[in-house]
Write a structure and sequence with these properties.
This protein has a 4-stranded antiparallel β-sheet with strand order 1-2-3-4. It has a 4-stranded antiparallel β-sheet with strand order 5-6-7-8. It folds into 2 domains: 146 residues, no CATH class; 130 residues, no CATH class. The chain has 327 residues and is an alpha+beta fold.
Length: 327
């Protein structure tokens, strides 16, 4: 989930708990975004891994410490009950952890007592549809409506936004449960990969053995079933020794995969897929795409170009639109 959606959802939950009390709304919304402040701890995280992004601040313990600190400090900034400040900040922070765990990014809710990671794979970690919706909602609430419209209209907007997110999360969760029940019949060792569209999902299986990786995927649409695939690609984890340019898509994929993994942690650490083709100049190119980091039809990718003269391959990390419509 993006920061704007975290803050907006925490704001709406706080409103549902305490009503329209601006000091508590501000505290709850702030708590909804605070766990991501761990990004500022990046220099320390190298020495203390517990401070990494999606580390201790994304745990019940971390959220509670922040809520206690807020309950002690907030009354000096805006009059209010320390107990209510604690409750709204605790729930705002926990909503952040729950939303991140709802996606394909894992969170460690029991740190520092357990390293167990939790993720539901029901939504994208950064879904640009909800990001745009949340930014627009803040503009309407705090720019267009605040102190400009009758209070009942403002309340109606809050209830409408609450209904939208409740329906959105319910649809995502229902789809995820439906696919989980069908997992075994869809593909061996299937992983369920959400896309930006709650009705469209990627079913993927990955097999590693003998120094090679084989990925198979198919596109699933709720209400229609599998609409495309299965498609497969296989390549050695480490680039094999070779001479000259590739002469086929198979060679281009085999020779490029190790290069792509070294060039981008995104490819190494997320589900991915590759395709190879001849460029207009006749040279072979291979592109390896992350299936988990996509936006507006493009995917985080590594593009490997093999010059026809046998020169070293050109490796470039970029966002690229797949020729084969994967997502």
């Amino acid at each position: 989930m993006d920061l704007f959606t975290h803050v907006l959802v925490a704001y709406l939950i706080t409103f549902g708990i305490v009503g329209f009390h601006t000091q508590y709304l501000a505290a709850g919304a702030l708590a909804g975004g605070l766990p991501d402040a761990d990004a500022l701890l990046f220099p320390l995280a190298r020495r203390f891994p517990i401070l990494r992004h999606h580390g201790i601040t994304h745990s019940i313990f971390g959220v509670t410490v922040l809520a206690l600190a807020g309950a002690l400090i907030a009354p000096f900034l805006a009059a209010g009950s320390p107990w209510i400040y604690f409750v709204v900040m605790e729930i705002g922070g926990l909503s952040h952890v729950a939303e991140d765990g709802f996606t394909n990014f894992s969170v460690p809710p029991l740190l520092p007592f357990s390293q167990r990671q939790v993720h539901l794979d029901a939504d994208r970690a950064i879904n640009f549809a909800t990001l745009v919706f949340s930014v627009a909602s803040f503009y309407v609430l705090l720019g267009v409506e605040r102190n400009h419209v009758a209070f009942p209209i403002y309340l109606f907007t809050l209830y409408a936004l609450t209904a939208f997110f409740a329906a959105y999360f319910a649809l995502r969760l229902a789809a995820r449960i439906h696919l989980e029940r069908r997992r075994g019949s869809l593909a061996p060792n299937a992983a369920i990969v959400p896309t930006g569209n709650p009705l469209r999902w990627v079913i993927l299986s990955e097999e590693v053995g003998g120094g090679r990786v084989r990925t198979t995927w198919e596109r699933y649409v709720l209400g229609r079933g599998v609409v495309d695939g299965p498609h497969s690609v296989e390549a050695p984890i480490d680039a094999p020794a070779h001479a000259g340019p590739p002469t086929s898509a198979f060679e281009a994929l085999s020779w490029s995969y190790g290069l792509a993994r070294r060039a981008s942690r995104m490819i190494e650490s997320t589900y991915h897929f590759g395709e190879a083709f001849r460029a207009a100049t006749g040279e072979w190119e291979a592109v390896w795409y992350s299936l988990e980091f996509t936006a507006f039809g493009r995917s985080a990718a590594v593009r490997v170009r093999f010059p026809s003269g046998g020169a070293p391959p050109e490796v470039k990390s970029t966002f690229y639109r797949p020729r084969e419509r994967i997502l």
